What does this fold into?
Amino acid sequence: MSPATEPVRTPNADSGADHDDAPMTVRFDGVGKAFDERWIVRHLDVEVPAGTILGMVGPSGCGKTTTVRLATGVYRPDEGEVTVLGSDPTARRTSERTAIGYLPQSPVLFDDLSLWENLNFHASLNGVPWRRRARLHEVLDLVDLDGEQRKLVRKASGGMRRRLALAATLVHDPPLLILDEPTAGIDPLLRRQIWEHFRTLRDQRRTVVVTTQHVNEAAHCDLVAVLDAGRVVAVGTPHDLRRRAFGGDVATLRFTNMVDERIRTELNTAGCSDVTLIDPHGVRIVVDDAASDLPELVRRFEERSIAVEESSEVPVDWDETFIALVGAGDTA
Amino acid sequence: MSTSRPRARWYAQVVGFLRKEVAALVRQPRLLVVLVAGPFIILLLFAIGYDQQQAVLRTAFVGPEGSIYEESLGQFTEDLQRYVDNAGYSSDLVSAEQRLSDGDIDAIVVFPPDPLGIVLAGEQATIKILHDKIDPIQQVAVEVSSQIAVMELNATVLQEVVARAQDTLVPIRESLSNIDAQYEVLAGAAERGDAAQIEASLAELGSSGSSIRTLGSTSGELADAFGADDATRASLDALDADVSTLRESLDRLAQRPEDVTADDVVGLQADIERVDAAAQGAATIDPSVVVRPFASDTASLQREPVDVNDFFAPAALALLLQHMVLTFAAMSLVSDRALGMFEVFRVGPVDGVRVLAGKYLSFMLVGAVVGTALTASLVVGLDLPIRGEVGWVAAGVGGLLAASIGLGLTLSLLAKTEVQAVQFSMLALLCGLFFGGFFLDLEAFTYPVKLVSWAIPVTYGTRLLRDVMLRGADPELADVVGLVVTTVVFGLSAWWLLNRRLRTR
It folds into this structure.
C-alpha cells in the first residue's frame, strides 16, 4: 500500500482556518501503523478540537478501527505521534484512563447477564461511584432501553445490544468518547436520537470521535475525515467537503424553454462548471456559492429574456460526495 | 459524572467482576450440573457399584488324582480365599482350558504329575499358571496370586513331609519322656538279665537321643539364621555334647547287651540326667514351626478402618474442585478475550491485578459454596469421616481452590481459543487423575515424571484431605507448602501473562 504523500490537515471546525494554538483533544501528527511490514494507516494528520464531533468515514478495511485503536492507546504508532487529552495514550497510568469512553466495533456484552447487569459491570469497571442507580436509568433512557433492563442480553435484538453497548460507553460520562461504528445495526429513528445526544454532549464541550460506514451520517458531524486505503483523503466540515468534492455548490436551474446552446453558453460565461443536462428543460450546475450565485444567474438570464422557472441548491447525496473525494484522492 | 476515588474504584471494579462472574455462572445451571453434580453422581455410582471381590480369581486346579495337592487343597484355598475362589480340582487339563476359554474361570493351576520324584531328583517341581488376562494390572494380580499360591503349596507339602517325619522329630519334652520310660525298662531288664529287652531298650534310647540331637541341630541352624545370642547358641552346643556322650555310652553297652549289669545302667543314668538338664536350658523349637516360622497378623496404625469409598472420596473431592474452578477460570478469561473485553481493559482504568483479583474472588466464592455442599453430601450421604480438624479441611480446600484458579487462569492465557482452553482443562483433569495420587500411589512414579505430580494442586489437596479426614492427623508441612507455592507460582504466571496480553501493541 502506498498512502498519500501529501498529508491532509484538519481545518478549524468553525472557520476553516488552521488553529494550531487551540486546545486539541485528539491530535494525529504524521501517524502510521504497520502490521507484518504492511502499512495499515499512514500519514495521518488529524486534529480534533475540544467540543467537536469528528466523523471518520470510509469503507470497510480503510483503517478506521486501526485509527481508533491508535487514539485509545491500544496500538502504539510506528511513526508519528498521537496525543489524546494532552498526553500519549499509550503512556497513561491506569488511574488516568477514566477520561475516555470507548465503544469497540463489536459490543462487549455478556450474553448470560441482563442489560442492567451488563451496564452495572461497565459502570464498575469505569469507577462509577456505588450509588449509581439513577445514572444507569438515565443512560438506559437515553438509548431507549429503560424498562428493558431485566432482559438477558442473549434474548436482546442486535439493535438493543448496540444501544446497550453505547450506554455502557456513556455511563461514566467521559470528556472524550471514541466510538467505533456506534450506529451500526440501529434503526434510522434511533440513530437520529443518538446523533442528537452526541450533539448535546458536544454542546457540553465533550469531544466525540465516531467512525461510521453510513456516509450520510457525516452530515451530523462538525468535522469529517474521509479515509480510504489507510490514508485520510479529506478532512473538513461537511460543507467544505461537499464543495471540495464538486468544486463548489451543486444547483439546478429549470427553464421555460428547452435548454439550447445559447443557455449553455451563458452558463459557461457566468462561470458555472460541470453543466449537466438533467432533462430537456433542466440543468445541474456547480457554482462557488449557491446562496449568492443563483440569484445572480437568474437575473442574468432574465436580462437576456430567458425565463427561469426554478432555481435551487441541490442537497448532494453524501455517497456521491464520498465517491468524488475518494476518486480525487486516488488521482492525487 | 465523577468517578470514585482510586481505592473505592479498586473495590468497585473487583466487586463488579465478582457480581458478573457469579451471575454468569448462576445463569448456566447446566454447566454447574455437568461440572459439579455429574462427577458427584459418578463417584456415588462408583461407591455403590465397585465390587472389591472382583479381584478374587476363579481358579481351577489340575493335577494327578489322589495326589498330595488334592489332599491339601481344602486348607490351601481356605488360606488363599482373598485371592482365589476354588473352582474345583481335576486331572483334565483340556476341559479346564476350555472353561478358561469360555470365561467360566480366570486361571488354571497345573500341578506337576510327579512332584516328589522331581524333588527327590534334586530339582524344583514347576507349577504352571494359565490365564487369559490382557490387562497388565490383572496380569500382575494373577502373578502375585500365583506366587503366593506356590509359596503356600510349598509350605503345605513341606508340612506334610515333616508331619510324616514327626516320629523322629518329636518335641524335646516327648523325647525326654521316652528316655525316662526306656531307662526304667532297661533297668528292669538288666536286673532280670533279659538281653533281648536290653538290646531293644538301648535301641529306643538311641533313637530318642538322635531325635533330640536332630532337633538341637535344626534349632541351632535357625538360631544362627536369626542371629541368636551366644547364650542360646552355647546351650544348644551343650545339649549336643551331652547327647553325644549319652549316645557313646549307649553304643558301648549295645556292643555287648548280654553283659549289661545293673551298675552299667546306673552309670547310664548320670548321662541321661545331664541330657535332661541340658535340654531344660536349651531353646529348641516345635517341628511344625520349622515349616512355617512366620504367620502374618496385619494391623494398621490407623485406629479407624478406611474402606475403598472413604479412601477415594477425599481425592475425588479434591479433583472435582480443582477441575471445576480451573475450568471456570480458564473459560472466563478466554471468553473475555474472545468477546473483546481485553481491549476494554486496555483502554479503561483496569489493570491485570484488578482483573485477576475479581476472578479469584468470584471463583473462590463459587468453589467454597460447591466445596461445602459436596463435603456435606459426602459426609452425610457416603459416611465419609472427618477425623481431623475441620479447620484444616477448610484451609486445604481454600488452598486447593486458590492454586487451581491460578492454574486455570494461566492455562486460559496460554490458550488461543475457547476450545483450546477446554482441552487444557481436560488435560489438567487427566494429569490430576493419573499423577495426583487419585488411584495410583505417587511413589509409583519416577523423576522427572514425578515433577508433574508436584506441579498440580490436586496432589497436595488429595494428600492433605486424606491425612486430615481419614487419619485424623494434621497435614504434612510439605503439602501445605506445596499449596502455597503453587498458588503463588500460578498466580504470578497468570499476572505476568495477562499483563503481556494487555500491553500496548
In short: The mean pLDDT of chain B is 79. The longest helix of chain B spans residues 308-339.
